[in-house]
Amino acid sequence: MKIGFLGLGNMGGPMALNLVKAGHQLTVFDLSKPAVDQLVEAGATAADTIAALAKSDVELIITMLPAAQHVKSVYLGDEGLLAHVSPKVRLIDSSTIDPMSAREVEAAASKHGNLMLDAPVSGGTGGAAAGTLTFMVGGEQADFDAALPVLQAMGKNIVHCGPAGNGQVAKVANNMLLAISMIGTAEAMNLGVSLGMDPKVLAGIINTSSGRCWSSDTYNPYPGVMDSAPASRGYSGGFGTDLMLKDLGLATDAAKQARQPVILGALAQQLYQTFSGQGNGALDFSAIIKLYAGGKDE
Amino acid sequence: MKIGFLGLGNMGGPMALNLVKAGHQLTVFDLSKPAVDQLVEAGATAADTIAALAKSDVELIITMLPAAQHVKSVYLGDEGLLAHVSPKVRLIDSSTIDPMSAREVEAAASKHGNLMLDAPVSGGTGGAAAGTLTFMVGGEQADFDAALPVLQAMGKNIVHCGPAGNGQVAKVANNMLLAISMIGTAEAMNLGVSLGMDPKVLAGIINTSSGRCWSSDTYNPYPGVMDSAPASRGYSGGFGTDLMLKDLGLATDAAKQARQPVILGALAQQLYQTFSGQGNGALDFSAIIKLYAGGKDE
Amino acid sequence: MKIGFLGLGNMGGPMALNLVKAGHQLTVFDLSKPAVDQLVEAGATAADTIAALAKSDVELIITMLPAAQHVKSVYLGDEGLLAHVSPKVRLIDSSTIDPMSAREVEAAASKHGNLMLDAPVSGGTGGAAAGTLTFMVGGEQADFDAALPVLQAMGKNIVHCGPAGNGQVAKVANNMLLAISMIGTAEAMNLGVSLGMDPKVLAGIINTSSGRCWSSDTYNPYPGVMDSAPASRGYSGGFGTDLMLKDLGLATDAAKQARQPVILGALAQQLYQTFSGQGNGALDFSAIIKLYAGGKDE
Amino acid sequence: MKIGFLGLGNMGGPMALNLVKAGHQLTVFDLSKPAVDQLVEAGATAADTIAALAKSDVELIITMLPAAQHVKSVYLGDEGLLAHVSPKVRLIDSSTIDPMSAREVEAAASKHGNLMLDAPVSGGTGGAAAGTLTFMVGGEQADFDAALPVLQAMGKNIVHCGPAGNGQVAKVANNMLLAISMIGTAEAMNLGVSLGMDPKVLAGIINTSSGRCWSSDTYNPYPGVMDSAPASRGYSGGFGTDLMLKDLGLATDAAKQARQPVILGALAQQLYQTFSGQGNGALDFSAIIKLYAGGKDE
């Protein structure tokens, strides 16, 4: 299929490469020349401007951008996609942004005649490279069905979450719970160890009991409990503290607009902000356990 | 085996019955005559006092009491177990109490020559009746091995957590994480639904993503998501709010003594205290989602 | 002086009336005809549109609007003030909005040649009627000096907080601390009373000790402690829960943009959201003490 | 008057000295010989044991001990005060302990025939030396009246808080509110400064507005705002972080026993525990502002 791809960063670059590998014809755009060059070497065509990409003969355009302000600018700006694209072209935004902004852009696309999906991902740069991302997709069922084969070239788990914006809703709700569970796991592990338990034994018990969660059984934050987790390699790699902080900002913003309390969610945001402010923004988000220094030295 | 059993409440009663059914000879004590009568009908022998039970020819005594003050009184009081029991008798306390108190009682037992295990359970009254409890056991390995067949008559999952007191440590750490996960799941579910998602779809996504936890995939607090959960029967039955509040009190107390911060744990305790104070102490602990009334009516 | 006044709501209406009473010639605009009529009866002139007001011969325009979106629209819109006003006219925005939006609008005004102040108020509708408001003012010193006599017709305490936007900064910082102190006072009062103290005696001790704060000594949330406080008249009147919730939203948003943790501030926001979601949004903000029902009935 | 004084630490030593200076005849006891020697040099008599002090001809005994366990041991132990003192001797405990323990000891004293007051202090070592402490006193009015002249030799502000235990209640309630206000002030100051305000200007505005509190107007935690505050001398001296942490532990314990939620109070305790665990336990409690490192470096 002829696909336009906009945004070739740490996530978008590998995702676009997987589309090329799957045999699609890609036209790409990014402000970074090296990022574009890498795709061109792999067989993609470069577009000079967003408008040029919009006016090319692609059937589908995928965007992967850092934040809502970029998504709004790229879609709604005077030189943006909707100003130049044909109504026949389908649109997929894989950026992680707040649900309200996603719905605002999708409403504009719909008014212009374009079918649009919001399809944020989870799985990190590793999943992007391996083509094993999870896509949480909002939009019409038929549009989802049509997009499925393309998304499957980049991911393994493709979930339809309901109408427009629901992909973003699912992502912020899941990631807020993830942050809460991770901090809770950090507290429970540190509490148990400070009271005399072996961390592996404690993790084993939790993982077969009602405290079990992804943060305890798949990504345990206590060093040495799981060889494969960032905790066992100095909290390098993985999903960064500042990315989690961004997602918690989206969750609490969305909650505010919905007038929905998220008490632990807001506290999790503040704890990640505190931890980031102490210079740890680049560490994996499971490093939050380091905020809990007490107990061991006394 | 000849076993003494002290404390025939909602949990202890069914546990003792399972021991009788498994062919053990029980001598029982409780302040409640009906509770004792039920066991006697099933084949047990009644002891008139704690001292009488201690002086009978039992090889093992199991206690199941409401709180640390009762455990201390029953074991350490002038008319208590240690004052009258032979050093040969092995002791198991299945009460849920703070680890420090457990270790204090076990040290006294050890000084008196008795081997003692702390073996708190999870699984609720349903698990007690069905004989499917989880036992988290602290004490010496040989003593654990010797007690295993007896514990297996009352439970399915018997875990050795390390030296004396570690059963209690494992329980408070697990249950604190459980409370945090439950509140986090409640917030994430309410947030998603208030932003337009179907609760079953949202739960399905979380349960295959990184937010997955026992509270989301086995005991979801949102009504209608899981037929088997208390949320789908008005939050009746299950594990009561006030019981969770008690366990959170044990966790934060133990954390204070260990000088270990448990930020979300302490907030969870306060939210359960607030919810209980609003008259909901008898509801299942997943009913905490009702504290989050906002979002829907606006 | 010839003054334009835009926004004649609960606060703006009485403020404009005080300017008329002080002898100023007012040209006013509001979407509500009754609100405009009241000012016209008092001697003001009505403008039909924002553009008409901007093009009239006023020397100064004051705006008092509900939220940042209205401020941006009124100042920056195609039919807004900056599109039609002469560069000689000075501008004062008394709305409470986030500092970043205030600075954005002030930068646009400055580019257009207009001197602009942000001057949010505290003191409520009572202070607006009595002309005893506090104005927290951001902008250049000379512009502040020039505006002082006009502001003194509406308020008693006029404080220069530094350059553009700092009026808003001072207001959100103060009100966030106010919310935290109020909840803290509610907790301390309820704790003391539940442990057996007389509320008046407790308040008296706190008010001469290190716990002393405006919420304890001027606006005590415990019923009966202070006859003049909303707590002693069913939490009617005063500063509404939903208004405090709005200000806490501004504070946490500004904190997020500044990457500054506000842990108690964010929790205060969530507690007010929870309380509002339980149907209490119209009560005075000191009613948050009602969230703490526990202790008394047990 | 002939007075016995037990506990000559950082607080008790200077308090006892002030009694000697006021002309009272003191008999003192402490485990530390240097502490006793200092009082003897000033004119006091040393007692060799608690029992000896109890059996001497004193009319009043004052105790100043670190924690509830010491108070219980000194009063209720086999070799303690109540075992040896005449019922005519009046008792005053100035230790800061939980209200329930205070009431337990006072009930035992009352049963033995002794009038007893709980009289915890605030004002720190500086106030102890200068004789300007605040005493919060629980007990009968007549006993309070009788003790007043003695207490006035050690303090400036002597407040009767109601029946036995209420001195402790007033202290824990006040200090919990103090901790919350201090953290709130730290957040508000850091928020304002990170958004561009001068800290002195911001403090000045808060101190004349509704955010005003002792922590902002008398003990501001931002360096340089108040020359007299610990913040302006590296957070040395003052009221230590670990002492505040102890008082927050008493407050949350008392709240738990009263089934009274203290949401911000519990979070304040956790933040002080976190801060202490990062190695700051000896700093003045206003140093908690250092936990909020964010905002400035980004």
Structure characterization notes:
The structure is a homotetramer of 298-residue chains. With 298 residues, chain A is an alpha/beta fold. Chain A has 2 domains: 163 residues, NAD(P)-binding Rossmann-like Domain (Rossmann fold, 3-Layer(aba) Sandwich); 123 residues, Orthogonal Bundle (N-(1-d-carboxylethyl)-l-norvaline Dehydrogenase, domain 2), CATH 1.10.1040. Helix content of chain A is 48%, strand content 13%. A 6-stranded parallel β-sheet of chain A has the order 3-2-1-4-5-6, with helices on both faces. A 3-stranded mixed β-sheet of chain A has the order 7-8-9. In chain A, α1 links the parallel β1 and β2. In chain A, α8 packs across α12. Chains in contact: A-B, A-C, A-D, B-C, B-D, C-D.
Number of domains of chain A: 2
The residue fraction in helices of chain A comes out at: 40-55%
CATH architecture grouping of the largest domain in chain A: 3-Layer(aba) Sandwich
Distance between the termini of chain A: 63 Å
The CATH homologous superfamily name of the largest domain in chain A equals NAD(P)-binding Rossmann-like Domain
Question: Could you give a short account of the major beta sheet of chain A?
Answer: 6 strands, parallel
Total E-strand runs of chain A: 9
Gyration radius over CA of chain A: 21 Å
